[in-house]
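Input record (one chain):
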Amino acid sequence: MNRDGYVARWLGREFEAVPGADGEIRLYTAEPTDGFEELRPDRYRRIVPAFELESLRYVRTACRWRGEPFVIVGEHDGWTRVEYAGGRAPVAEALELDRIDQGVWQAWAPTGELEDVHEEFI
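The corresponding structure, as predicted from the sequence alone:
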């Protein structure tokens, strides 16, 4: 599973999380859990005040492809969408990546070519 988003630790468990502007955090889980309301099958939510959390961090899945650093942004049918994290336009151009925006370069990479797939907490 490739994660890209907030994770919170609450009552000793890790949950997918979405911070709100109101100081509350929305926690999500795929299984029925005490105090969580069902939004749809396999999706449950509980809203808690931020001060109740043990931690709140952002996680993303990173890798190396063709010797360069990337962040995984999607997957489909044996291919992985990767975004160049090296910050060097000449390298991105040499790799023939798609320029999505100023300084943002992406490509579809065969999943089997990815190396050193790991999570980064930022």
